[in-house]
Design brief:
The protein is mainly alpha-helical. Helices cover 75% and strands 0% of the residues. It contains 26 helices and no strands. It has helices at 10-25, 34-46, 50-63, 68-80, 84-93, 100-112, 116-128, 134-147, 151-164, 169-181, 185-198, 203-215, 219-232, 237-249, 253-266, 270-283, 287-300, 305-317, 321-334, 339-351, 355-368, 373-385, 389-402, 409-419, 423-436, 440-447. Helix 24 crosses helix 26. The radius of gyration is 32 Å and the shape is elongated. Mean pLDDT is 91; it is low at 1-9.
Length: 459
């Protein structure tokens, strides 16, 4: 029994397909045996070119009408186009019922026909007859369930295969991937470490381990894994990029910049590296240098939202509000559903004392993403400045409900309650504010100077 499905080497694959395609155009003649035609059909199916695969199969059946192997490929095409009943009928009619690929296709057809119990029985039969190849049979069954996004069942078969052979690297990669899909991150990390124990010179295992640590996040271990990956393949652009991202997350911006410049050597689109470098300089508060890199990114990719936003933020930090507004508006023209861009626009408008338009920008932002306590508090502040105290209070309370640790939220809520003459509530919130900051009563009087001559502070 030929288990563990495999494909011919790429060179053989490509040579066979090229010869076939030359045959179709009339630039070559020749004969194709059954195995070659199987290879051609599989090639097109792997590429998602089902019609081309069906055409190659048609030629194959003209040349080899009695071939059960080509009939199996026909069933595979039926599965690819969603004709599951026809696929199963054909598979069930074929005489060579012990053919390994045929059995796997029958399992897939049964699952897609919701005949799960029959599929399980056939899976168990394959495993029972697998002899010394149980791990690879389990792996092939798991691939079927992967294709159906049924990761829980895939995991069952992968673990069964793993019990038989603890050092099957192909299986361990899929086991790690499966754990990733069901958010079992620690177990995915364990699987990648087991691969490395078997073969410590496998850069993709180190890279994937780094990705897992990065996602947890555990940036120090991620950095270590990326460095091992790069020691085995220094030209891996993704590993260079992820290593730089890790330095960025650790606040090591100089090292991040070095990494991004290394990535730039291999990057298909250089604007990405320039964007990341710009962001690193922005974090270092070297705003002029950051703007320069963001503008370099824009020269390559003029409609880049992140570069335009980055420039706007840098100008905002430098209090160059008019320039900030100009670039943020350009960013919004590209993506007006980015809530953070509307916040930056509002901050720029406040800088030029255009509070009314700033208010509209803030409101637009929370219409896109309502879960923004800081923005909601900023809206409340504008309404307080407009003496619309009841509306301001509504927004303060909304922000308070989302995050009662916001700086000065108790103080401002107390002031809003005082303005609408709800002195009891005002005292409650002022007490909370004072517990956090002894200067709160003084700040309260700056907002509500009329409280000096009232009975508010009297017991």
């Amino acid at each position: 029994m030929n288990r563990k499905l495999s494909f011919p080497p790429d060179d053989d694959f490509n040579d066979t397909v090229k010869r076939y395609e030359n045959f179709l155009t009339g630039t070559a003649t020749g004969y194709f045996d059954v195995e070659e035609l199987e290879t051609i059909v599989d090639y097109y199916l792997r590429k998602g070119r089902t019609k081309d695969g069906a055409k190659a199969l048609e030629l194959g059946l003209q040349l080899h009408p009695q071939s059960a192997a080509l009939q199996t490929k026909r069933a595979k095409i039926y599965l690819a186009v969603g004709d599951f009943k026809k696929a199963f009928r054909l598979l069930d009619s074929l005489a060579e019922n012990d053919d390994y690929e045929l059995q796997l296709l029958k399992i897939e057809a049964l699952i897609k026909l919701s005949r799960e119990k029959e599929a399980q029985l056939l899976c168990n039969s394959l495993i029972k007859n697998a002899n010394d190849d149980i791990d690879n049979v389990c792996l092939d069954i798991a691939y079927i369930y992967f294709g159906l996004l049924n990761f829980e069942t895939s995991l069952i078969y992968l673990l069964k295969g793993d019990e038989f052979n603890k050092k099957n690297i192909d299986l361990l990669f899929e086991l790690a991937f499966c754990y990733e899909q069901i958010a079992e991150n620690e177990k995915a990390i364990e699987a990648y470490n087991r691969i490395i124990d078997v073969d410590p010179f496998m850069p993709e295992a180190w890279f994937n381990l780094g990705q897992m640590y990065f996602s947890i996040p555990d940036y120090n271990n991620a950095l270590n894994a990326y460095e091992f990956s790069l020691s085995l393949n220094e030209h891996d652009s993704l590993a260079n990029l992820q290593k730089a991202h890790t330095h960025f997350q650790l606040g090591q911006y100089e090292k991040a910049i070095q990494g991004y410049k290394e990535f730039e050597k291999y990057a298909f689109e250089a604007w990405q590296a320039k964007l990341f470098i710009g962001e690193s300089y922005e974090k270092m508060e070297k705003f002029d240098v950051a703007v320069d890199y963001y503008k370099q990114a824009l020269l390559i990719n003029p409609d880049n939202f992140d570069a335009l936003t980055g420039i706007g933020i840098c100008y905002l930090e430098q209090e160059k509000y008019a320039l900030s507004i100009e670039f943020i508006n350009k960013a919004i023209e590209i993506n007006d559903e980015a809530s953070e861009a509307w916040v930056y626009l509002a901050e720029g408008l406040i800088g030029v004392n255009d509070n009314e338009n700033a208010l509209q920008a803030y409101l637009k932002s929370i219409s896109i993403d309502p879960e923004q306590p800081d923005t909601i508090m900023a809206i409340a502040n504008i309404y307080m400045d407009k003496d619309e105290h009841q509306t301001a209070l509504m927004y303060y309370l909304a922000a308070y409900e989302m995050d009662n640790t916001l700086e000065y939220i108790d103080l401002f809520t107390a002031a809003a309650f005082f303005k609408i003459k709800n002195f009891t509530a005002a005292k409650v919130y002022l007490k909370k504010a004072t517990d956090q900051n002894l200067d709160a009563p003084k700040l309260f009087l700056e907002i509500c100077p009329e409280a000096v001559n009232s009975h508010f502070f009297k017991k």
